[in-house]
């Protein structure tokens, strides 16, 4: 066998990108921004997706399971939206978009019968507009607007972008006639059209119903009416109708066109008010409560928590006011902090239980001045106590977090941690300076003191524990005096040129971000630290451990 080897060839497995790729192409007058993802396997169909107001690309990551080619077009022309129809009343936008779609049809060798147009809200209007005007076979439109001019007028930046400066009434009238005119010119009624709406969406009466007389002329027109008590807002129609919408997408993109006609989607029968009241009263009287952490921030030694907390169900007398308190518990002792009740928009959907219940005031927030500075060091279980004084109900339940939470911050002479999961939330307060830790890699690359500011930077990582990202650990600078300790947050920074020479021989871990420094290399402000002599430490908090290394001594003198 010859010792000579051929040069490396490109690996075929890396040549075909099966994820969305973002691009811009010039078509006619306008550059068109889009994403494209090629089909997986032998699924030659092309799904064209138009976005709704406020979204960059339609349907986000919801299209992951769709197997065919997907072209998602952004409504962004000269810095603003166009409704995919007109930018500042220039209708050439639609020709540019159509040219992009046609170019992909040619590249993929698909026909008009192998293209499906999909959109919600603004994107739904676009799907109908392009489907009819440019002769596509398959259209899926959820909650489309009919009066494009009236809807655009006064609708944030959409008004000026579509209608032009000042949004003149004559331009509103032109845009209002767009959908009516394109449907009036129709000559091919052999299309598969699926429109989704809901009586819970105000836009059914305001917009969608005006489509129906013209659309019912098509041989395969399907109207899905999503009738559910959990649809109370425009954007909720897609979420509630998603299983049906997915079945249509999968069928059309596999070459099969469902014929559903007019169908109602939702519970088999409307809620019986008496049964609902009985069930919700029973739920209210059961020994249960809800407390879920949804957001947490730690700033300047203070903690900001937001979440959901309420007693489920409702009494026969109606919705009762609830007060809420945060409870920390350790060794049989409790520390209680008042919470503010906040308004939440969609808890009825998230916590639906047999029957509709609003829970409009089911949120909570910690008060702005919440600080655990006076809390003794230790580990605390966190719960929320909810009181309905008028009903004589007071219940306490463990606070949980749907996502894993790990927030750490300096708090005076301590480190404060809030860690949570579905199993519960704990608050941990511990010394911010531990013993001089063995087994870590530590160097001081630079330090200085001037103008009441103190700076230190260097390498600090634990071999065997990855430090490849800037969130791998929290670093603190601590000034330890005779009677008090003062702490400041440091930042982790990527500095491979300095870190890598410090890695022990044979260690193949990534520690590129195992480098600490004061924020912006500007030093920490010691103005509020009393004059005196301090030992300077750097602490690294990672996992369940706190590692500390001594930087040196520091004498702080106050300016005269």
Could you walk me through the main structural features you see in this protein, from its secondary elements to its overall organization?
This protein has helices at 92-108, 122-133, 148-152, 157-163, 169-176, 178-184, 203-206, 212-215, 236-253, 273-285, 347-350, 496-499; strands at 21-27, 30-37, 46-50, 69-73, 115-120, 138-142, 192-197, 220-226, 262-265, 290-299, 302-310, 323-330, 333-342, 363-366, 378-388, 393-398, 405-411, 414-421, 424-431, 441-450, 453-461, 474-480, 485-493, 515-517, 524-525, 532-542, 545-556. It is α+β, with helices and mostly antiparallel strands and 560 residues long. The chain has 3 domains: 12-265, Alpha/Beta hydrolase fold, catalytic domain (Rossmann fold, 3-Layer(aba) Sandwich), CATH 3.40.50; 276-430, Sandwich (Immunoglobulin-like), CATH 2.60.40; 432-556, Immunoglobulin-like, CATH 2.60.40. The strands form 3 sheets. Strands 10, 11, 12, 13, 14, 15, 16, 17, 18 and 19 form a 10-stranded antiparallel sheet that branches. The chain has a 9-stranded mixed sheet with strand order 1-2-4-3-5-6-7-8-9, sandwiched between helices. Strands 20, 21, 22, 23, 24, 25, 26 and 27 form an 8-stranded antiparallel sheet that branches. Strand 10 and strand 11 form a beta hairpin. The chain is globular. It starts with 20 loop residues before the first strand and ends with a strand. The model has no long low-confidence stretch (mean pLDDT 94). InterPro entries: AB_hydrolase_fold.
